[in-house]
Amino acid sequence: MSGKSFVQITTDVSKALGTLRKEAPDTMAGFGAMSAAALKEGSLSALQKELIALAIGVSSRCDACIGFHVKALIKLGVTREQLVETLEVCAYMGGGPTLMYAAEAIRAYEEFLPRMTKTDAA
């Protein structure tokens, strides 16, 4: 296992985003509103929209995006099978480099799932 921790990545980025919320409140409020509107249930479910967001994060090779969207997917009840099928499409469309980040998304899922399951049970 590499030294990369998606728990640590999302924690660190969340802190930095907090700084941006203080120093660039209008931009961050606008981004938050766009996020809420884009992920709102509609013709596509929230789960489907988060799978799309994860696919873009994987394709863009964004560790923080992978972490945040995997966490959101776990909260929405994603199955491992749904996650893997999404990552299969990512690998097909993005080739080898995307395949490496698809593997990172699996690592993020395996890192977050036990932590979040324990938290939800408490």
From TrEMBL:
One MF annotation (Gene Ontology) recorded for this entry: peroxiredoxin activity
Instruction: Give every Carboxymuconolactone decarboxylase-like domain span.
Output: 25-107
Lineage, top-rank taxon, reads: Bacteria
Q: Which PANTHER family does this entry report, sorted A to Z?
A: ALKYL HYDROPEROXIDE REDUCTASE AHPD (PTHR33930), BLR3452 PROTEIN (PTHR33930:SF2)
Q: What is this protein called?
A: Carboxymuconolactone decarboxylase family protein
Q: Which organism is it from?
A: Azoarcus taiwanensis
